[in-house]
């Protein structure tokens, strides 16, 4: 699935793929590392990243 996501992203000329993972989820983190993903940090002077959501009713 991750390979397909990357293929589609490249076709659309996307500059990156981002994932969200809980820090305690070692299985997922190891899978993402295996597929070339890595953690990143923002400029600390700009503050921490905030994750927002909007729940859509089904």
TrEMBL record:
<dbReference type="InterPro" id="IPR000182">
    <property type="entry name" value="GNAT_dom"/>
</dbReference>
<protein>
    <submittedName>
        <fullName>GNAT family N-acetyltransferase</fullName>
    </submittedName>
</protein>
<feature type="domain" description="N-acetyltransferase">
    <location>
        <begin position="1"/>
        <end position="57"/>
    </location>
</feature>
<dbReference type="InterPro" id="IPR016181">
    <property type="entry name" value="Acyl_CoA_acyltransferase"/>
</dbReference>
<dbReference type="Pfam" id="PF00583">
    <property type="entry name" value="Acetyltransf_1"/>
</dbReference>
